[in-house]
Amino acid sequence: MSEPAGRSGAISVISSQTEAGDTADVHHAVRRRKVLVWAARLATLVVVIGGWQLLTSAKIVDRFFWGQPSGIAAQLNDWVRHGTAYGSIWLQVWTTFKEAVLGFVFGVIAGVIVGVLLGQFRFFSDVLSPYIKIANAIPRIVLGSLFTVALGLGIAAKVSLAAVLVFFVVFFNAFQGVREVDRNLLNNARVLGASRGAITRHVVIPSALTWIIASLHVAFGLAIIGAIVGEFLGAQRGLGLVIATAQNNFNPNGVFAAMFIIAVLALTAEGLIGLLERRLLSWRPPSSVEASPA
Amino acid sequence: MASTVARRPVQIELSGVTKRFTTPSGSMFTALRAIDLVVGAGKFCAVVGPTGCGKSTTLTMVAGLDRPSTGTVSVGGQGVDGITAGISFMFQADALMPWKTVLGNVALGPVFRGRPRKEALSQARDWVRRVGLAGFEEHHPHQLSGGMRKRVSLAAALINEPSILLMDEPFGALDVQTKAIMSNELLGLWEQTRPSVIFVTHDLEEAIALADQVVVMTAGPGTVKAVYDIDLARPRGAVQEIRFDSRFLELHHQIWASLREEVEAAYARTARGGRS
Question: Are B46 and B210 in contact, with CB atoms under 8 Å apart?
């Protein structure tokens, strides 16, 4: 760009060489930055876990209350080798996972159906809107006590609690998504001769899907919370029960170890929902997939 | 099969149509007052008028998306009640489903009318080709330019072989060159099937170049001020060239004199409204 004028042939050769050099430089810089970011991430992990380990070893922080990374690892190892007080660790994981997934599925189905229906029928939504507001203001987690009494110590109480938590999030998003459907698209479909059912199927649901899928990320987290709290309140197996037992035994390492397992579960589910999102919303321009509404 | 026979064009008639809306504050707002308008079967009618004179409202009532407060709208001699049969509507904004491909969007008309999916798709493929988008069947709307999206809308509007085509400033958002190209294509396609058209626009040149009949509306509440017959021969050829035809200039001069008063009146009103 800033070459002196004249001898244009030679200059263009030189500049194309520098251009090639520039692209190589850019690639190099990008790679270097990536390496740097990962190195910094690793360092953060080492500092936090190592610091925790050191502080507890040096007795600056009491490991009786706050646990210790090596203790957590030992606890996990012990669970895998010898199982928990309620059977193998895998059984506990499977129980909690099953409860969360079932609650998630029921909550999502009910939330989408009710949201899409209420969103389309103005009259019903006007009638029900104050009650929905009230229901949303209630701390629904308390329903867990009710479900435990009514449905017993089995899986049903946990699934119900998870489903209720999931339902409201999904419902609100589905409802809002239906309300936000572009008037033009609706009128266009009507003029083209679409029946009410065809409009719902071809216009309303695809349009609301962006909102619904955005809610699923939050919803699965809530499903796990529902399952765990349900198990706290009374259960015969499950990670919530394992945590409650660890708490009663003054075993912070047990609490942390169960927390770790739950985090792995949640991250896996999050990854699967991300895949589903990319599949169902593949029509969106790439930039808006990255910046999806949360 | 019924679809292979082009629908017979029909006459559109508005008589004494008034439309009032209730504003959020509870007062009444008259958008249209005592409109009388006849668009002959197979005629191309352009409606021009200042912003906010109720041009779009007229279209929604012909389509059956809205009802007049008083007066009647009839299509082919039948009063409009619910969505008018055999009608297509091209909206000002894109009315394409962003989650459907070009082919899927164009196929919506036949799909909504209960055609088997396969037949709908092959019909759509044919129309995509006719608007010059062959090769873009599997693209999504966001991957297309504004002009290409308008072509998709045009194909989606024409695939049902409508007897009436309503267009609400369809090319308003396009640049001048693309607009000229789209106008030529519209004329070419219209001459093949000759539906009755009501074409709302702000652009008087576009109106004269395309239409058989130009309706000038007054500043709100809108009513018909004058109707001009455009006696330029058909087929018109390129819209860019007809602009230099002496008859075109004469008509333009004449209609603009009438339209200008209304545009100025509407402007004065908004300017006054802004100041008070």
Answer: yes
Give chain A positions within 8 Å (CB) of B143.
Answer: 285
Domain B8-86+162-275 is found in CATH 1.10.443.10: no
**Nearest residue of B to residue A282 by CA position?**
B99
Q: How many CB pairs under 8 A join A and B?
A: 62
pTM: 0.76
DSSP-derived secondary structure letter, B238: -
Residue carrying structure tokens 């193998």: A88
User: Is B87 in contact with A198 (Cβ distance < 8 A)?
Assistant: no
Helix axes A205-233, A143-151, angle to 10 degrees: 70
- Residues B39, B43, B48, B51: what is their CA dihedral angle, to the nearest 10 degrees? 70
Measured between beta carbons, the chain A residues lying within 8 angstroms of B100 are 283
> pLDDT of chain A along its 294 residues, tens only?
444 444 444 455 555 566 666 777 888 889 999 999 999 999 999 999 999 999 999 988 888 889 999 999 999 999 999 888 888 999 999 999 999 999 999 999 999 999 998 988 888 888 988 988 888 888 888 889 999 999 988 899 999 999 999 999 999 999 989 988 888 899 899 988 888 889 999 999 998 998 999 899 999 999 999 999 999 998 889 999 999 999 999 999 999 999 999 999 999 999 999 998 888 888 887 654 444 443
Interface predicted TM-score (ipTM): 0.83
CATH class of A69-290: mainly alpha
CA–CA separation, B137 vs B104, rounded Å?
8
Strand order in the sheet with B78-79: B28-39, B12-22, B70-75, B78-79
In chain A, where are the structural domains located?
8-61, 69-290
